[in-house]
Specification:
- The chain is an alpha/beta fold and 221 residues long.
- It has two domains: 2-119, Response regulator (Rossmann fold), CATH 3.40.50; 126-219, Winged helix-like DNA-binding domain superfamily/Winged helix DNA-binding domain (Arc Repressor Mutant, subunit A, Orthogonal Bundle), CATH 1.10.10.
- The protein is built from eight helices and twelve strands.
- The chain has helices at residues 10-22, 33-40, 59-68, 84-92, 105-119, 152-163, 171-178, 187-201, and strands at residues 2-6, 26-30, 47-51, 75-79, 97-100, 126-129, 132-135, 140-143, 146-147, 168-169, 207-211, 215-219.
- The two termini are 23 Å apart.
Length: 221
């Protein structure tokens, strides 16, 4: 699952990034409201963590623009504004939750997890494929009764394949899905990640097929 942090305080943004990265989420960070507005028009996220006091474009305007496009991505608003009127304004514009600075990172983690659960409440977060069980909210994978311990990028890769099962995914699509704004993923790295994941899940009966010249295809067991 992918989270966008929009926060112009570099130290705070780094702390939030580390906290969410540690629990296995793919995280992008932006520090400008106008840039965030542009990215959110073309990129889909599972949760947006949005500061209000931003350069370029105020966070409330970013939120308003999202909702005007019928973008219902869950939004957790972060702000130093502690007036009731500011909270009401954010909630009226469609914020899903509100956290006033300063806050504990452990609370932010809990609120992001809650938004992820809420966002998937109409669909089960657990997907069963053969003997493989994948939980997108708990960030766990099992083969039979055994826990499959996957590094973050391999987990995100498996999540991507499951979301596109039966469809060919190009190397560029995989690279985009695994990268963040600060670190690109090369074509060679994609091949390595796919090879490692393929070996780890083959016992479940799932095959990741190489489609020459096009990419990869995960077949149902």
């Amino acid at each position: 699952m992918r989270v966008l942090i929009v926060e112009d305080n570099a130290a705070l943004a780094n702390g939030v990034f580390t906290a969410l990265d540690t629990i296995g989420l793919a995280v992008d960070v932006l520090n400008d409201g106008l840039e965030a507005d542009e990215v959110l028009r073309v990129q889909q996220y599972d949760v947006v963590v949005l500061d209000l006091n931003l350069p370029g474009l105020d966070g409330l305007d970013v939120l308003a623009n999202m909702r005007s496009r019928s973008d219902n991505t869950p939004v957790l608003v972060l702000t130093a504004r502690d007036h009731i009127s500011d909270r009401v304004a954010g909630l009226d514009l469609g914020a899903d939750d509100y956290l006033t600075k300063p806050f504990e990172l452990i609370e932010l983690e809990a609120r992001v997890r809650a938004l992820l659960r809420r966002n998937s409440e109409n669909k089960s977060p657990v997907i069963e494929l053969g003997t493989l069980s994948f939980n997108s909210v708990a960030r766990t994978t099992h083969i039979g009764s055994q826990v499959l311990d996957l590094p973050k990028r391999e987990f995100c890769l498996l999540e991507l394949f499951i979301s596109k099962i039966g469809q060919v995914i190009s190397k560029d699509q995989i690279a985009d899905g695994l990268a963040n704004f600060d670190e690109d993923v090369t074509s060679n790295a994609v091949e390595i990640y796919v090879s490692r994941l393929r070996k780890k899940i083959q016992i479940s009966g799932i095959n990741i097929k190489t489609v020459r010249g096009l990419g990869y295809l995960m077949e149902r067991p």
